[in-house]
Amino acid sequence: MTTFDIINPATEEFIRSIELVDVEATDDAIAKAVVAQKRWAATAPASRAQVLRSFARIVAERNEELAQIEVANAGHPIGQARWEAQNVANVLEYYAAAPERLIGEQIPVEGGVNVTFHEAVGVVGIITPWNFPMPIAAWGFAPALAAGCAVVLKPAEWTPLTAIRIAELALEAGLPEDLLTVLPGKGSVVGNRFVTHPDVRKVVFTGSTATGKTIMRGCAEQVKTLTLELGGKNANIVFADSDLEKAAAAAPAGVFDNAGQDCCSRSRILVEKSVYEKFMELFEPAVKAFRVGDPAKDDTEMGPLVAKAHLDKVTGYVDDESLVAFRGSAPSGPGFWFPPTVLTPERTHRTVHEEIFGPVVTVLPFEDEADALALANDTEYGLSGSIWTRDIGRALRVSRGVEAGNLSVNSHSSVRYSTPFGGFKQSGLGREQGPDAPLAFTETKNVFFAQD
Ligand code: ADP
To answer: Which residues form a coiled coil (predicted)?
Structure first.
């Protein structure tokens, strides 16, 4: 049995060793999930709703325990980790209403009755990344279970601990055995098996665009449906007519939250030329005041990067000191620390185009609205972005013009479970969350009943 050592990224201390699941054990879990799913889909909608509500309740009760696990495993600040655990409870509660609301249609036709049913697709394979292990898992499994599916879930190698605990809580809540199975393992083994196994009818993947493309190619083999949530290189567009103090004060959290390990991170700040100097004057103290340190402390805003290999990758983007405008602080000593870093490169530089996935932001000046839009859209990605302006017409024009799935005006709003989330272009395929999410785990069936 291969094992994987889990390391606390803030201290580099060993936490525990995890046994990695192989293909045989994955196949076994999928076979059991097939049986459990059929029983679950045949359970009364109101009973399924009840179980999901108890699941939500137990997760809410264990908020502190789950949050502490994430602080140790992923280095997330405790305040953020509590929000993440609560998000799992909220998502479950929200989708607990869905089993009784998977309402089909009755379509007028000649000679009988024509109705549609939303049939559960069957077993769903969910592959999650290490940046937000709890919420991203829940955005997949909660609507999938609500739609009548069974779930096999593979967490990222570095951060499996909260998903393992959540699956235990599901059993405590009364979710039937084998309906939500967490399989810690390698992407190339367990994740790939979800793609190749014919009984896994849908794959939900969040991670890098490169791996997403591999999974999409694999799914084509069986015409398997999939949802992809991939990378981002999101623009934070600051116009001269905006509340500049507010825009500058909000910008650090917009990019450095979760140490920038967020596909929605506003990692490109675009500032109208006439206020560029003024913005940088306001932005510098805000970056320097961003509190980086012990994630167990209540007032910490940013913890370490998740792992040594990731720290090395991020460090590789800032090897040329001449690009650095200014930096915040970070602890020295053990832990995978990297300070908030502000770069002012040329438009063509790779730090402007590649997803760094760390606390590094590039700031570029722009000429006018057309230039801002051209710059914002000059990327293969299209996940999120922000627009700062007091001109409502401009807010409308620019938010319609930016090619991205999730935008906020005069804020960097985070993801909400009640609204759809997903990307344009190479940031993804399909949407998660929002009222329609359970439908993504169903097939529409149309049946005609002849009246004679
Ligand atoms: P990152 O580069 O941020 O680690 P990845 O896209 O490589 O992101 O990983 C996201 C998730 O996808 C992880 O759970 C990982 O194990 C899994 N994964 C990696 N490669 C594959 C693959 N070939 N097939 C399925 N899952 C994979």
So the answer is: none
Contact 314, 356 (CB under 8 A): yes
Give the position, in ligand 1's atom list, of the atom nearest the Cα of 214. Answer: 23
pLDDT value for 322: 85
Phi, psi of 398 (to 5 degrees): -75, -40
Note the Cα 34 to chain centre separation in Å: 27
| CB contact at 8 A, 154 and 160 | no
Counting atoms of ligand 1 from 1, which one is nearest the CA of 157? 16
- Write out the DSSP string of 155-212: --TT--HHHHHHHHHHHHHTPPTTSEEE----IIIIIHHHHH-TTEEEEEEES-HHHH
Note the Cα 221 to chain centre separation in Å: 26
Report the predicted TM-score, pTM, of the whole model to 2 decimal places.
0.98
Q: How many CB atoms lie within 10 A of CB 313?
A: 14
- Rounded to the nearest 10°, the torsion over CA 11, 290, 236, 379 is -30
Each residue's pLDDT tens digit, 250-276:
999 999 999 999 999 999 999 999 999
Rounded Cα–Cα distance for residues 356 and 150 (Å): 35
In angstroms, the CA 288 to CA 158 distance is 29
Cα-to-centroid distance, 309 and ligand 1 (Å): 15
Phi-psi category of 317—alpha, beta or left, where left has phi over 0 and alpha has psi -120 to 50?
Answer: alpha
What is the spatial distance between Cα 452 and Cα 192, in angstroms, rounded to a whole number?
Answer: 50
> From CA 200, how far away is CA 141, in angstroms rounded?
14
- Tens-digit pLDDT profile for residues 55-83: 999 999 999 999 999 999 999 999 999 99
Residue located nearest, by CA, to atom 19 of ligand 1: 187
Residue with tokens 């049995």: 1
Q: What percent of the chain is predicted at pLDDT more than 90?
A: 98
229 catalytic per annotation: yes
Ligand 1 touching residue 129 (CB < 6 A): yes
Residue 319: predicted pLDDT:
85
For the residues 339-365, what does the mean pLDDT come to?
Answer: 97
